[in-house]
């Protein structure tokens, strides 16, 4: 399925190894799942949406998404029965696809207001969205939030159910003080093959989402 290409460099007998995907092969289906519960105010919502759009427009992120022919989608979630697929799956076949997806993400209106934090329900809803991208080699839920679950289905059970389906869950823990959310995500949210990126408050979210996406796609570029 994959091919290794060795190119001689500068005529010095050195070789660079390039990891190449077959044409039109999707390496990663990445679902970006964003907390819009009542703990997120209007300014914090805008930081998340603009941070996501800016991260997608980073040249390194564009290159990684296109190289892996990745598929992207966005979910917004809050309380029980309050989850929505606000941007459906799109394939990143070229830089223009990433740029358009980023523009669409930046224009997103908030789907829910004044609701609880039902992380388990959000994970379950997100996991059910992957049937449309069944040909992708990896399925990843990228879930962000600034508070623990306070309603709905068990987040730990939902995470275990997703892992049993072969889905990876990574998290962005948005911290207001200390590392309580980071530890909560590590214990409860991410799968055994997942990781947590810590954002030191909402202002740090743009940096965190960029680094997180690059880490999630590192298998393709590395």
What does this structure look like?
- The protein has helices at 42-56, 59-67, 95-106, 119-127, 155-164, 180-189, 205-216, 218-221; strands at residues 3-9, 14-20, 28-35, 71-77, 83-91, 138-145, 167-174, 196-199.
- Helix 1 (42-56) packs antiparallel against helix 3.
- The chain is α/β, with parallel strands linked by helices and 222 residues long.
- The chain has one domain (24-221): von Willebrand factor, type A domain (Rossmann fold, 3-Layer(aba) Sandwich), CATH 3.40.50.
- Strands 5-4-3-6-7-8 form a six-stranded mixed beta sheet, with helices on both faces.
- Helix 6 (180-189) links the parallel strand 7 (167-174) and strand 8 (196-199).
- Helices cover 36% and strands 26% of the residues.
- The two termini are 16 Å apart.
- Helicity range of the residues? 25-40%
Report the CATH C-level class: Alpha Beta
Number of helices: 8
What is the end-to-end distance? 16 Å
What is the residue-averaged pLDDT? 87
What is the count of structural domains?
Answer: 1
Strand order of the largest sheet: 5-4-3-6-7-8
CATH-assigned fold name: Rossmann fold
What is the C-alpha radius of gyration, as a whole number of Å? 18 Å
Task: Examine the secondary-structure arrangement and name the CATH architecture.
Answer: 3-Layer(aba) Sandwich
Categorize the overall geometry: globular
Q: Outline the biggest β-sheet.
A: 6 strands, mixed
Oligomer: single chain
Query: What is the N-to-C succession of helices and strands?
Result: EEEHHEEHHEHEHEHH
Full CATH superfamily name: von Willebrand factor, type A domain
Low-confidence stretches: 1-22
Question: Approximately how much beta-strand content do the residues carry?
Answer: 25-35%
Q: What's the β-strand tally?
A: 8
Structural class comes to alpha/beta
């Amino acid at each position: 399925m994959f091919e290794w290409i060795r190119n001689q460099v500068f005529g010095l007998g050195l070789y660079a190894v390039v990891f190449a995907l077959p044409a039109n092969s999707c390496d990663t289906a990445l679902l970006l799942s964003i907390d819009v519960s009542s703990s997120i105010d209007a300014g914090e919502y805008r930081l998340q949406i603009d941070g996501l759009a800016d991260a997608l427009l980073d040249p390194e992120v564009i290159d990684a998404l296109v190289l892996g022919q990745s598929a992207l989608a966005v979910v917004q979630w809050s309380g029980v029965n309050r989850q929505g697929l606000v941007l459906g799956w799109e394939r990143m076949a070229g830089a223009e696809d990433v740029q358009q997806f980023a523009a669409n993400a930046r224009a997103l209106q908030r789907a829910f207001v004044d609701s609880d934090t039902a992380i388990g329900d959000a994970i379950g809803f997100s996991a059910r969205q992957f049937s449309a991208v069944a040909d992708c080699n990896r399925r990843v839920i990228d879930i962000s939030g600034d508070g623990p679950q306070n309603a709905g289905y068990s987040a730990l059970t939902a995470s275990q159910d997703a892992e049993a389906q072969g889905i990876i869950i990574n998290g962005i823990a948005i911290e207001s003080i200390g590392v309580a959310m980071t530890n909560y995500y590590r214990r409860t949210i991410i799968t055994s093959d997942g990781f947590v990126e810590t954002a030191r408050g909402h202002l740090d979210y743009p940096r965190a989402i960029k680094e997180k996406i690059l880490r999630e796609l590192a298998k393709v570029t590395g």
